[in-house]
Amino acid sequence: MNSIRQGHEQEARSHTFDSNTNGLLYLQLETELKQAILDGKYGVGERIPTEQELCDMFGMSRITVRRAVQDLVEEGLLNKVRGRGTFVAVPKHILGAQPAPERGFGDMSSTGKRTVHKVLEKSVEHADTDLGKLLGIAPGSEVYYIRRLILEENFPMAIDNLFVSAKRFPDLPDLLHDGTSFYRLVDEHYQYKFGMESLTLDASTARGDEGTLLRCPVGSPLFILRKKMYCANGVPMHYSKSIVRADRISYHFEVDRDGHVVNQGKEFSLTVGGSAL
């Protein structure tokens, strides 16, 4: 890291900032830092130099540096963490209404980065009474359980736990691989029509295993999204429980004057970057 920072310092010294810009030196520094982020010199989640280091690197006053950094924080490009420093912010996705099958965590995020589905576990289980009710099957029926890690590029966003009836989705474990969209399989392979979905959103904090997978400290804020999706004929399609980093996702709802969540007159659904789960 020191050698990388030294390289940045040498490059910074090669730039000449025009002091005759009517007091807008901070804008030049903002541009310089933005370009460094776009060029990948400071990656997502990486700490940028301290205010004093930036002062030394660019020959600017602390007031100027602080103004530039604060503007980038307000733009969402940087994130200040008390006692730790200033980091390149993780892009935050807004989840809102989207027609099926373009729901959930898909192939491309709203930032244009590739979204990756990494399968962690596949198993055949037998439904207990509660899961049987959720899936509309008898207790003891075979259920496919698939656990996946959802990443943007290499940065984790969520852990998705998917449960489906083995009878309704024959061979699903053989078809759902890393990078495969479950909803695309539903639409194109199984050819089920999407119906309503029931959603429950709770708040939680990361436990040890969740923090390890999501690369966040234990105790970090999480969303717990429980979803029951129905086919158009009213038969349950799947039940899922997604554990989502709260610093990666915002949930957006539009509510009409009668208190109903709406999507331009259609039933409500969720999406990240307009892509499929």
Helix-strand blueprint:
Layout: H1 2-13, H2 25-38, H3 51-58, H4 62-74, E1 78-81, E2 85-88, E3 93-95, E4 104-105, E5 115-126, H5 129-135, E6 142-152, E7 155-165, H6 172-175, H7 182-190, E8 194-205, H8 208-214, E9 221-231, E10 236-245, E11 249-251, E12 271-272
Parallel strand pairs: 3-11, 4-12
Antiparallel strand pairs: 1-2, 5-6, 6-7, 7-10, 8-9, 9-10
Question: What do these coordinates show?
Answer:
- The chain is an alpha+beta fold and 277 residues long.
- The chain has helices spanning 2-13, 25-38, 51-58, 62-74, 129-135, 172-175, 182-190, 208-214; strands spanning 78-81, 85-88, 93-95, 104-105, 115-126, 142-152, 155-165, 194-205, 221-231, 236-245, 249-251, 271-272.
- It folds into two domains: 2-88, Arc Repressor Mutant, subunit A (Orthogonal Bundle), CATH 1.10.10; 93-272, 3-Layer(aba) Sandwich (Chorismate lyase), CATH 3.40.1410.
- 27% of the residues lie in helices and 31% in strands.
- The strands form four sheets. It has a six-stranded antiparallel sheet. A two-stranded antiparallel ribbon has the order 1-2.
- Strand 6 (142-152) and strand 7 (155-165) form a beta hairpin.
- The radius of gyration is 23 Å and the shape is elongated.
- The model is unreliable at 1-14 and 264-277 (pLDDT under 50).
Protein traits:
single chain; Arc Repressor Mutant, subunit A; 12 strands; 277 residues; 8 helices; two-stranded antiparallel ribbon; Chorismate lyase; six-stranded antiparallel β-sheet; disordered C terminus
Number of strands: 12
The CATH superfamily label of the largest domain reads: Chorismate lyase-like
Low-confidence stretches: 1-14, 264-277
Categorize the overall geometry.
elongated
What count of helical segments does DSSP give? 8
Provide the structure class.
Answer: alpha+beta
What series of H and E elements makes up the topology? Answer: HHHHEEEEEHEEHHEHEEEE
Compute the number of structural domains.
2
Strand content: 25-35%
- Largest beta sheet, briefly? 6 strands, antiparallel
Average per-residue pLDDT, rounded, comes to 80
* Helical residue percent band: 25-40%
Supply Rg: 23 Å
Strand adjacency order, main sheet: 5-6-7-10-9-8
- Overall CATH class of the largest domain: Alpha Beta
Report the end-to-end length measured between terminal Cα atoms: 37 Å
CATH topology of the largest domain: Chorismate lyase
Q: Any idea what the CATH architecture of the largest domain is? A: 3-Layer(aba) Sandwich
